[in-house]
Amino acid sequence: MIIEILSEVISINFSKKKHKLTVSFHLQFSSNIFYIFLVLGLSFNQPKFSPTPIWNSNGITFANQSIVGKEPCAIFVNTNNTIYVVHRQISAIVVWHEESVNPTNIIFGNFTRSTSLFVTSNGDIYFDDGAENGQVQRWIAETNTSITVMNVGSSCHSLFVDINDTLYCSMYYHHQVVKRSLTNPVISSNRVAAGTGNPGSDANKLEGPRGIFVDMNLDLYVTDCGNNRVQLFQSGESDGSTIAGSTSLNPTIKLECPSGIILDAEKYLFIVDRENSRIIGSGLNGFRCLVGCYRWGTKSNQLNEPSSLSFDHSGNMFVADTLNSRIQKFVLMKDSFVLSFNQPKFCSTATWNSHGITVANQSIVGQYPTAIFVNTNNTIYVAHRQNYAIVVWHEDRVNPIKIISGNFTSLASLFVTSDDGIYIDDGYKNGRVLKWMVETGTFVTVMNVGSSCHSLFVDINDTLYCSMPDDHQVVKRSLNDSMINSNRVAAGTGNPGSSSNQLDSPRGIFVDVNFDLYVADCGNNRVQLFQSGEPDGITVVGSNFLNPTITLKCPTGVILDTEKYLFILDHSNSRIVGSGLNGLRCLVGCHGIGSQSHQLNFPSSFSFNRYKDIIVADFLNHRIQKFQLFKESCVNTSSVVQTVYASELTTKSPTYFPKCSESSFYYEAIQVNVRRSGLYTFFSKSNIDTYGSIHNDYFNPSNAYENQLADDGDNCKPHQFRFTIALESSIKYVLVVATRESSKGGVFSIFVSGPDNVDLKKINYPPVSEKLFPSGTRPNYSSELTTKSQTYSRDCQKSNYYYETIRMNIMKNGDYALGSNSSMDTFGDIYKDDFNPMNPFENLLLQNYRRCSRQNFKFIANLHTGTKYILVVTTRNPNITGNFSILTSVSNNITLNRHNLHVSSASLFVTSNGDIYIDDGNKNGRVQKWSAETNTFVTVMNVNSSCWSLFVDIYDTLYCSMSSYHQVVKRSLTDSVMTSNRAVAGTGIRGSGSNQLYNPAGIFVDVNLDLYVADGYNHRVQLFQPGESNGITIAGSTSLNPTITLRLPIGIILDAEKYLFIVDNANHRIVGSGLNGFRCLVGCYGLGSQSNQLISPTSFSFDHSGNMFVTDQYNHRIQKFPYVEEFCGN
């Protein structure tokens, strides 16, 4: 049918005098492309691509310098696939068919330094000869002669003949585009098409114009090199509009001296970005790099200041690679690319159920799940870190459909491509990224790295990215490159910092179709955008952002939707936030840290499924949570219902102390009942300066932060508040309206717009008459952090944070304010029951850093009598010391006393004569010996810190493991010199090398004087043979025959057969080795307080009958596990 219609069209000829306009067609099947050209006299190829075509990033050198000369500028490919290139040195036009290796014709002429050419459908060639001779020439195919067709004042950087036979010339040095009709016999009849002739950036001006293109509507497109933009001059208009470049309405890419331009059949732009040495193209999602995306160079995937481009009829791209003196051909590989992950398009009012569904618990995904990926088929991939496996299941299945085991350790991230290849991090121990090949069911190394990759990403050009928090950098390599060591820096200098070119512990990464890299910059609490090829990032979310609407705390994941809105995993705030028209808002996990269904506990990564639900790896809750999208939140979003509430703040209104203020303010609490779940906007109108906040369930005037979901002071316009938030019909909310000027009231109105009306009702709350810290408040506690203070890893990333623990004794239930006063940059945590420096997230109740002032923290906490609370005071950065004081709001109802963790003793050892060796290193810097004979203590060793473990070998040598100094020292008890300590293991600098330790804990020395060390944060046991500084890993993921995964081993004993027994602290168990490797012995049923469970055991010992005694730390008990002898029978 199509052919019949086209046949009828072809038979029509339009003629006017000698100029005949032929309507022709070109039918082409190529790869997955089917396109039909209805061409009005067009001589060049204008393909119809899909919105997401891909070219092979490695170009083929179609012609080198020996054929096209030095620095070729001009190329043209016609609809017959005949290629024309100007050879500038010999003043010739080289012509050949694409299938030909050698030129089929060389047309010599009388021209110099030609920079452009254009070939019409009859084979005539228009070429620039303006630099020396001030003319444009036309070579006539019929007569094989050249004539002058245009007089110009300078070189024409680009030539174009439109469908009306009008010739255009872009004059770079005259900042103008001129044109003349070829049907006009007057050769000097040039007219201005664009530009005033004076350089400038106004709409009617150009600066150094280069490439030009004229479409069927006679609209003129100009690459305005000096202004780094592309201008569109509609027919007859002198003012242009910027359609590409930093000043366009929707800039998605940065240009630097664009020099060539072509439109495809759908009017998508293809631009030669000369100074960035690349070709870019527009599409549904804005601009993206197509070829030359690896900075300038001479490799096959690089360009060096290209000048022009042209397409053949198959959609292959030909580029004049000027400074490389060659013509490169980039083959169209795929007319579209398929993303392996879900990138939904959301409505502006999208809302998710705040209560998550647990789709996989610890029994399926293990402890501390970090990596999750959901593909477009709704297949879920999760890394099981304890079993060294990837667990795979369909979302609609209860049980996994596949478990892929491998020889990898401490897996932090994974990425699945559309061909089901799985890329996994194995950098921590083995320094590599692996790919699981679905065809062979095997793993291969695809990237070498220096440390763990917290996040992996494969872009549409098959480039693999790895974010390395320990190296403060993101690196990448092309998977098409055969050299596996071809890593290049994508972002970061390798040194931590907050400058635009630096990162501090980068985590999650995302690369869009434009090859723009988004980095969750954890240590800087921001998200950085690194545009393709740019070393300097732009802060798109974070406190340094131009319009911050939310505060991030160690973001660790980032995803873009199809509209380029950001979704961010706000790790230390235990929530997921998303951007929109009104800035950022909390989406899920908006109710504080916890284990309930509407809470998260330091989540590590997330993904969308095909139904637009959010799937989260809930790290410290050991589960995978699904938060379902409320589909009704996007129904009838155009019909908005508004509710109005009016009231007045007076001197009779209750008062409170908002945030950190020392003055009281009038407020009114309003109960909000939501009839229909969805996105609602609250804004105020008043003559007074208003502040608004909304809270979940209730409002505590003594603690304005409690249950707070959103707040704002003057977002809408000066002195008024406005915020948008997702509300659910099943939850009670409280809106608080207050003044921002103390002791001032007035009339106000509240407007609430959303998918339905809301019910607003005033609630009466009592006033809060007491200031947080009344003037003259004296410190309740004062102390100092010194180099002798205990140290720990506050954020599980950096070590050597000095800290002090303070016991808070509560005499009366109520709200208490606690704040610091110090010249240091202080950080505060409150723990319930106890504090474990080896796991700072355990028992964490509240965390506050610089809430109210630049360097001091402040808490408002509801505390109860009879509960043990521990306040930990530390610093923002490691290795900081100084004085500090703690202020409290009600000093007569709360007392603060120093709480010495392991101060009395962290360890002891008893020798055969009954003498007891006791650690006293934390404050007094010594090990003491209690003599059974004299019943007295004497100092037997001087140390710099607490000894986590002590041991006396058969030669009376005393060993001390100094966890904070990453070292084990020893001294002979027969040596009279007390300072005769020697290092026996560890360099004193933390690390995972064979000669290094990281927070060593338990130690054991056998009769051969072999030293066994439980190397805590390296999750291994090391053996140091006598006199050897390098240890051998005998237990842990990096041992030769790993059969068990350790997590924070801190105690070790050998039996008579040299089998190992290990306290696996963070796995809450005791494990032992045997003929068949390691196995769990006790505490094998998860953490808990039942008789078969343990919580963070610290040490153990055997009696002479083989019964095991365990210090069950957080169950506050000593557990005895009887030895069952019958299991050892024949």
Helix content: under 10%
Major beta sheet summary: 6 strands, antiparallel
How many angstroms separate the termini? 87 Å
Second CATH tier, the architecture of the largest domain: 6 Propeller
Structural class per helix/strand content?
A: mainly beta
Give the CATH class of the largest domain. Mainly Beta
CATH H-level superfamily title of the largest domain: TolB, C-terminal domain
Using only CA atoms, what is the Rg? 36 Å
Shape: globular
- Helical stretch tally: 6
- Number of beta-strand segments: 94
The whole-number mean of residue pLDDT values reads 85
The parts where pLDDT drops under 50 for at least 5 residues are: 1-40, 849-853
Domain count, please report it. Answer: 5
Oligomer category: single chain
Q: Output the CATH topology of the largest domain.
A: Neuraminidase
Give the percentage of residues in beta strands: over 45%
